[in-house]
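ARCHIVE CARD
Drawer: 12
Card no.: 0347
Subject: one protein chain, sequence and derived structure
Cross-reference: see card 0346
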Amino acid sequence: MLLEGATEDDIGVQRSVDEDHCRGEESKTVVKRAQNGDVAAFEYLVTQHYRFIYKTAFRWLGDQTDAEDVTQTICMRLAKILSSFDGRASFTSWLYRVTLNAVRDLQRSKVRAERRAAELSLTAQEETSGGQEDAVHVADIWKQVRQLPDKQRDAVLLVYGEEMSHADAAQIMQCKEVTVSWHIHNARKALKGRL
């Protein structure tokens, strides 16, 4: 997808970007081009990772509207924060951390808003959606997971929600693999008491 009024150079860049992606060099080549101001490369990054950002945000938040808000916020901020990507980790791992930080920012702002609402004695009703009993049970489990302490929640969502290995989760959480296992163990104990 090219911007309206794209030049032959832009088309060449797009072809080159597509070829790089096919060779698995996206993380280094396309990101570097986007960091250097290449609009087509930046647009390609956003297009290719939009669904990944949304799915990650939704898994953590459990709310479509909030996940869309986080995704849009990241896409708008990406041009500014892309310069902080240094290539030590994969682009996807870096983007995962950016997404988790945005999720936490939204969660903190919601907690502050809820406190203000409570102070003003306002009550809010939660919407519940109908569906099959299993779907409701799974939704209840994820709701309980989202209420775990941050490290436990992150470990469970990465390993079970995103189906990552403990090693991959450890890289994203910036800890050792055994620490991820420990957080999952503690989360299981906590969830047994809640479910």
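Annotation on reverse: Residues 91-119 form the longest helix (29 residues). The chain has a mean pLDDT of 77.
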